[in-house]
Amino acid sequence: MSVFRKHESIVDRAASDRTRHKKKIEKAIKESIKDVIAEESIIGQNGKKKIRVPVKGLKEYRFVYGSGEQNKTVGSGGEHSLKRGQKIGKQRAQKGSGQGTGKASDKKGDQYYDVEVSLEELAEYLFADLQLPDLEKKQFRFITQETVKRKGYRFQGIRPRLSKKETLKRKIRRQKMAEKTGAYDPESDERFPFHKDDLKYHHIKPKAKENSSAVIFFLMDVSGSMSQARKYLARSFFFLLYQFLNHRYERVEVVFISHSTHAERVNEDDFFKVGTYGGTIISSALKMQMEIVEKEYHPNAWNIYTFYCGDGENWASDNEKCIDLFKEIKDVSQLTAYCEINESYKGLDDDSLEDSSVKTNPWANFSAWKNEELDNLWARLRPITDKKFKRVMIGQTEHIWMAFKSLFGGSKTK
Amino acid sequence: MSDWTVADLQKWDDKICRVGEDLGLDWFPIDYEIIDYAEMLGAMAYTGLPTHYRHWSYGKEYERTHTLYNMGQTGLPYEMIINSNPSIAYLMRENALYIHILTMAHCVGHSDFFKQNRMFAHTDPSNIISSFKSAAKYVRQLIEDPSIGIDKVENILDAAHSIKYQVPRYPGIKYKTRDQIIESEKDKMMENPDYNPNLSKVPIRPEYNLLRFIAEHSKNLEEWERNLILIVEESSKYFIPQALTKVMNEGWACTIHQKIINELNLPDSLYLPFVKLHNQVIRPHLGQINPYHLGYTLFQKIIEEKGFEEAKTIREVHNDITFLRFYADEEFMREHNYFSYSFNRKQQSSIVDDISDVEGWEKVRDAMITNVGLNRIPVVFVEEIEKDGTLSLVHEHDGRDLEMNYARKVFEHIKTLWRGEVKLITIVEDEIWEF
Question: Which of the given ranges, A127-141, A256-270, B26-40, B100-114, has the highest pLDDT on average?
Fold first, then answer.
């Protein structure tokens, strides 16, 4: 005789372990995202696109046997006639024999396991709890527009704001009272007209409305000195910036301006693909941006973000012009960043990162240029000290995240 | 909605139990928990145990099963029973009556196996639930302790789980303390004057219980950390007999459920779907071993040739390794067309190594034995603690190399537990390799 019981357990006993597991996945995704953003460069892609993020550390490691010739698997052959030395497909040996305790054999030798996330989710993972408290307040002060909003009712007002509904309600109320007291007989043919006291008007209050449109200007040097490797870094950086801003604003437009000695407004493909030869005049791109801003994106209506990427080389005589233009752009933009792709930059040493004063601006006094005397733009831009203008330096993919954080990260570096 | 009531289950259970007794089976009383789909997923994540300590890996297991089930790649098991006294089994509310009947008959087989098989003789089925319960409580307290917290607890559990199967392979081997070992070594020396072991070495003899050894000898571990490691070791012990008898246990349960059901005189409306499900369960998996199929077919052969009484003796005294070695003969291997294969790096493909013909069947059977239960898990033992405190471990190489990426990670985990230098010696491509 067995006993039968309706199970009376905690409804969802695995809940806390599942939450914990989920947190770990998210953490792992965040950790490997730096690698992913360097790989995947898809500005303007549909947010639904899925990308595979390799996640480390969620595997439970045990001692297992490798898949070599000594590690034989046994299986039943069914009706098939098999011969020694016959090839039977690629995955079989990896699979294990499908029994026993070892789940470890499901993907031998694979240190990663892939989690598929959409770009939207990716951006969420990246930014949702990046812990950037200052960011919300400072960098993301949206441009505000004054609008008006109805709020409550008043007895006084101008005709166009008359509330018919409220007025009618008051009239009906008065009429019913009159019926009760006998002052008015509904059966009679007598009309019951509106009275001045019935009239009610909408009250309006001015309200500041946040503008949630942004335009991002991506400016890049495509002159001969910008190698594929440098462009690749720039692209990864742009990708991250785009994802971030796109996540924050309802509507984001992107303008790509490439330049060598003259600037050109291009589409995304050409921006990254087409290379030109010849010299570099940065001011040409900056000038073009200002023109576009004037014509198409009024700073009162748009949150403007400007990101320039180049290798720092410029005609010396052009630098003066650039500084002035950067100042102009800075004044109309929410944030302007000058990003230098410089392979000789190997990252800041830990000491300088420890110093809390440099956390918001790690490159304040840094230069990868050995000869400071040279008239380089990086050094020349140093005097512009403004929260809305920042310089960042990228030498290799690992620096992208750091650069990103110094742009938006406020006070927390880790 | 469902085609049964609890009264139906009770009625069928009575019949099943009566047939079971007539067959001479002897099992623990069974408590059936009737649960729904979500609870079943929960029960599965914790391998059926009604209480279990918290760890994210069980959340992962839940999600995995859930996903597989949603994608239709796996059905939920209709049977889940744990080795306790009374045995606890689960019946999923959503299942139809014929599935419940099959499940209950199947559970009688398992519970009988738990109670009779020698491998389980040293499990403590009456206390297993309460011991898991107190472990769960202890872990919860550590997690809630503000000076410890979940991260530190996970750090130890993650590491301990990585070597949870590095415990003695045969049940009943008692862990001996150093004093006890010295005592028995001295006895041996008395008997044999030539026997001269190094009694200052730690451990004196290779120690296969890594978790226990580390918990006892690791310096710098806090009390709660040692306890946590021992909790993992304790729960491993519960699973070892099951891992050793997976093929037999499932084969026996399938044999029993079929025998019982054939005695029940089920109406066609229940019998036909039963036959379909039964065939589904015991079907061979191409290129793999389905333990249900392997165990069932081998028991069928034994019953045919030697009778049911002999089969009952076999279910008592064997484990998967001896079971296959004794009874999987040429005829059997040939009948099911078993073959062995391995991955050939040069050809980037799996290649058939041997087939069950006159020359090959023994090799295939031997390879099969290396694939069952714990034989799929490499053996690593403690060689000694060196003078500088380094924990020296050796992988018992049996021809199969370790998967190095995994081994490296496990090595790091062991360091976490040992809190000091660790050495691991193995063989990779015929060369000695030291981590």
Answer: B100-114
What lies within 8 Å, CB to CB, of B77 at 6+ separation is B44
Report pLDDT for A54: 59
Token pair 């415990």: residue: B167
Residues B347 and B406 in one domain: no
What span, in angstroms and rounded, lies between the C-alpha atoms of A173 and A189?
A: 19
**Structure confidence at residue B324 (pLDDT):** 96
Domain count, chain A: 3
pLDDT of A211: 64
A15 belongs to a structural domain: no
Judge: A75–B289 Cβ closer than 8 Å, yes or no: yes
Reported ipTM: the value is: 0.88
Distance between CA B394 and CA A266 in Å, rounded? 63
Give B 32-61 residues with CB within 8 A of chain A.
32-35, 38-39, 41-42, 45-46, 50, 54-60
> Same domain for B277 and B301?
yes
Q: Which of A112, A127, A107 is nearest to A37 (CA)?
A: A127
Contact B382, B203 (CB under 8 A): yes
User: pLDDT of B127-137, one tens digit each?
Assistant: 889 999 999 99
Please compute Rg for chain B using Cα positions: 24
Q: How many CB pairs under 8 A join A and B?
A: 288
**Position A13 in a domain:** no
Chain A CB contacts of B63 under 8 Å are 18, 21
Question: B197: distance to nearest CA of chain A, Å?
Answer: 30
Residues A203 and A220 placed together within one structural domain of the fold: no
- Is B1 among the domain residues? no
Instruction: Tell me which residue of B401, B320, B335 sits closest to B368, measured CA to CA.
Output: B320
Q: Which of B35, B342, B376 sits opposite A7 (nearest CB)?
A: B35
Do B342 and A73 lie within an 8 Å CB cutoff? Answer: yes
Best CA proximity match to B377, nearest among B345, B400, B394 = B400
- Residue A281: band (very low, low, confident or very high) from pLDDT cuts 50, 70, 90: confident
Q: Which of B6, B398, B406, B414 to mutate to test the interface with A (most CBs of A within 10 A)?
A: B406
The shortest C-alpha distance from B186 to chain A (Å) reads 35
The answer to whether the CB atoms of A58 and B60 lie below 8 A apart is yes
| pLDDT tens profile B67-88 | 667 665 555 566 789 899 999 9
pLDDT above 90: residue B105: yes
B216 or B176: which carries more pLDDT confidence? B216
Cross-chain residue pair B59–A98, CB shorter than 8 Å: no
d(CA B232, CA B154): 12
By Cβ distance, the residue of A13, A18, A72 closest to B342 is A72
For residue A246, is pLDDT > 90? no
pLDDT in tens, B370-389: 998 889 999 999 999 998 99
Interface of B with A in 254-283 (CB under 8 A): none
Element housing A169 (H / E): helix A164-181
- Mark which of A167, A192, A209 sits at the end of a domain: A209
Residues A366-382 as b/e (b if ≥16 CB within 10 A, e otherwise) read bbbbeeeeeebbbbbbe
Q: What percent of chain B has pLDDT over 90?
A: 63
Give the span between the Cα atoms of A178 and A66, in whole angstroms: 95
CA distance B374 to B367: 13
The span from the CA of A81 to the CA of B297, in Å, is: 20
Q: CB distance A102–B291 less than 8 Å?
A: no
pLDDT at A90 over 60: no
Co-location of A402 and A256 in the same domain? yes
> What is the pLDDT of chain A when averaged over all its residues?
73
Chain A within 8 Å of B19 (Cβ-Cβ)? no
> Which among A235-239, A369-373, A398-402, B341-345 has the top mean pLDDT?
B341-345
